[in-house]
Amino acid sequence: MPTINRFADLQEEITGWRRDLHMNPELQFDVHRTAGLVARKLREFGCDEVIEGIGQTGVVGLIKGRETSSGKVMGMRADMDALPILEQTGKSYASTVPGKMHACGHDGHTAMLLGAAKYLSETRNFDGAVAVIFQPAEEGGGGGKEMVDDGMMERFGITEVYGMHTAPGVPVGEFSIRPGPVLASADEFEIRIKGIGGHAAYPHECIDTTLIGAQMLQSLQTLVARNVDPVKSAVVSCSLFEVDSTATNVIPETARIKGTVRTLDGKIQDLVEEKMRRMVKHMAKAFGGDAELHYERHYPVTVNHDGQTAFAAQVAREVAGQGKVVDNAPPQLGAEDFSFMLNERPGAFIFVGNGDTAYCHHPQFDFDDEAIPHGCSYWGRLAETGMPLKG
User: Fold this and answer.
1) 69, 90, 218, 300: most buried by Cβ count inside 10 Å?
2) Beta carbons within 10 angstroms of residue 174's beta carbon
């Protein structure tokens, strides 16, 4: 069961939608143009319901099958937002908005799910219903949580939910997936250090926050190296170290360190936060200073459910062919707020090949339009295989 022929016919049209989205990127929840285009297309396709404003600016379209006796409602999710990056692709359809670009393939995700919605609205060869979910604010805004908190699952009776992401480095036409933890949790921290500032020539009269911060930067790396089981994964990355002075002859009064923590296990997540709190408090005091840790948990671990993952891999093999689906891919320490949806309903998150391209979040990244028939066919077969007609 290879790619669906209808998507070869639709590829040029879907590519046009994708490139229009690419030229007009929007950030986080401010995706009004994108959401409006999505809602308009869904109505043109003949979706049975099109609801806007879910989770602030999310859109959901409901497509009923020829039969609905199964009682199943399969959720299929795409994200719509772009990133605050200045594009450097040089493409004819490059971003027209300086400092904003689709550097993570969300334009492709949205276009492929729109293509699938058009096909499923035309054919309806399934017993149940499909809820196509277009989500804002995946890039740091927690739009997935907003849609869940807005009652999306209950409102549409969603029984299973599936997501897809483009994968640079995986050949176009191939897929990868794994059961269990597939993407990491994403936490952010800020350490605020307080000392006594003064003249750099008289350090004995000061409590040097630069020194305290430097010691913390080094010691934070031991949280993983000496506390986390070596066969498990965690990352503590400090991405900002800032003091309140730029003069070379001043010892600053305050300093701050910001960064991210990534884990694939909730218990490891708890461990890292606990150890970090203890380290920050006692290390600052050891130097005579003081420090506060502000720790925020953003996205939980993205955990694929076993049964739905096996089913998704089977469908991907039917689309791509044998040997073109990795069904036990290694987990990654990137994060996804699709995790909030998987915490509410069983489902799976799969990667579709984007070929040999720049990696996500790079100013030269671009979605490969040749992936469109493969991604669209996966969505179509997911509904038709998972909710087969009885006749």
Assistant:
1) 300
2) 20
How do 254-263 and 58-64 pair as beta strands?
unpaired
Q: What is the 3-state composition of the chain as percent helix, strand, coil, each rounded to the nearest 5? A: 35, 30, 35
- Choose, from 81, 127, 174, 336, the residue flagged as catalytic: 81
- Write the burial class of residue 157 (CB in 10 Å: 0-12 exposed, 13-18 middle, 19+ buried): middle
DSSP conformation class of 104: S
Q: Spot the catalytic one: 79, 87, 138, 160.
A: 138
Instruction: Check if 13 is active-site.
Output: no
Q: What is the pLDDT of residues 145-180, one digit of tens each?
A: 999 999 999 999 999 999 999 999 999 999 999 999
Which whole-number Å values give the CA distances from 9 to 135, 283, 314, 359, in the listed order? 27, 64, 25, 29
Per-residue model confidence as pLDDT tens digits over 258-303? 999 999 998 999 999 999 999 999 999 999 999 999 999 999 999 9
Pairwise CA distance, residues 111 & 13, whole Å: 10
Q: Do residues 64 and 144 make contact, with C-beta atoms less than 8 angstroms apart?
A: no
Amino acid (one-letter) located at 160: E
d(CA 381, CA 177) in angstroms, rounded, equals 17
Q: Quote the pTM value.
A: 0.92
Tell me, yes or no, if 138 is annotated catalytic: yes
DSSP for 325-386, written as a single string: EESSPPPEEEE-TTHHHHTTS-EEEEEEE--S-PPTTSTT----GGGHHHHHHHHHHHHHHH
Dihedral over Cα of 178, 332, 19, 55: its sign: positive
